[in-house]
Write the structure tokens for this entry.
Amino acid sequence: MMLKGLLGAEFRLPCRSTLCKLQDQMLEEVQARVLADLEAIAVQGYPTVTISTDLWQGPDSLHFQAIVCHYIDSSWSRQKRLLYLDRLKTSKSAESQVQRIRSVLSNRKILEEWLFAASSDCTASAKNVSSLLGVQTALCSAHICALEPRKQIFLQTRQEAGVQELRPHERASPEVVSFAESVRKRAKGFRYNETKRLELESVQKYVGGRTKRVVLDSAAKWSSSVSMFDTDFLLRTAYAEFAVRHPQRAEIPDDMSDFLVSRDMAGVLRPFQVCTDMLQAGRAPAAVTLPCLTALVANLRADTVLIATDTPGQLEALPAARLQPLAQELRQRLTENVALESRHIEEQRSLLLKCSFLDPRFRAMHFCTQSDKEATIQALYEEAARIPGFAHELEEENSDHGQPVSARDMFLQAMQGDKPVQNAKQRRKALREQLATYGHGANLALDTEPLHFWQEHADALKFLVPLARRYGAVPATTADAERVFSMAKHYFTDSRLSSDSVDKVMQISLNLPEQGLWQDGDIHSH
């Protein structure tokens, strides 16, 4: 009665059927908007849309699949739209995923011929999705970046004689893995033991430091290891200060001598964390992949390493030669082995080179050889020349619309017939000139939005526009599909909504532009 009085006599709470009807209407509007966008940019015979997929295993061991559509709309804005989020209901094989993708596309009236690429992680079943769909393979660059650090600091599951056990990876240093496990064990003790947690807080307050919570990393998000090692260093420096003031306290940990190792290990892993964060930026295109990985290798070979100081949030440069022995061992193995993961890059190297060249921030292609750049330009030239409608556009441009033509001229032109050879030469010459004009330009600043460049130069570089729209839509990672599960997690665990209702709610929430729930920003904003 009190609630009714507050809401007023005219207020009527809608019933469930009304809410469902409103939800379905909003969903139809959202889906119609996506379809209209795709139809507006569709070029018959030249697909420009990329989809990214990811799987998540629910508490009941069933897998959920998320399908996100990436494209550049007619106003030159990079768009990402959730197409599907629901239980897979079958095995997580590539065949099952492809069957579901095709079903979703059919229900949404999205033609398969609009698809150019499918982005996924590097697992075998996920990689096969693109080949079964008959589209270009695009692998998650952040996943590739994380493969080697994960092997170097985590125990790996190995099976021998039918028995599974955890042990260091074949390419990892057992001593480094053992140290990482000891830090992990200590973090668990301080995090889950109430006595140790209170003791840690008291020590931090006593030495005048800000109370900092222990961080525990996970293999699923390996970059949290950097925070774990940094925090371990900061907390143990507090204990070291406490030990100086009270050397008689027996409960102070005995192994205080190795706290610098945690600091240096975090410094060695920090370039991987920065690289992963940039690749996972909400709107980072695949064009940033090769430049990011090139910068990663350069950081691993640099003469200095950025390490944490006693002041939280501040870093300082430390000569690499002064790193602790275990940290030097980790750095050496990472430097030697990171190239071994390039097999995943090589599988899509041609795609990544094209993406980078068509991004005006990286068109100089300093990260590859001159022969690679020339081969990329030649491949794009041949691809552009095959785009349907390419010939028609140039013929319209070169025709003399509006010019007076005599009957005799028209008769003579009919006697000569068409000149397809001459027209083809004109088309290819114009395409060559546009590629040369674009390729000889200087790289734009990293804080430049590449799509603004293409919008401004769409007329001058008209034959390259379809290429820019196709390759600019390929995302660097599958992070958008992964974030969908994080956003919807409370629906899966805390509510009683059916999976179909979850799918509708998430599509409406994420696909309405005014909601702004997608994390946006390119490499310059992170």
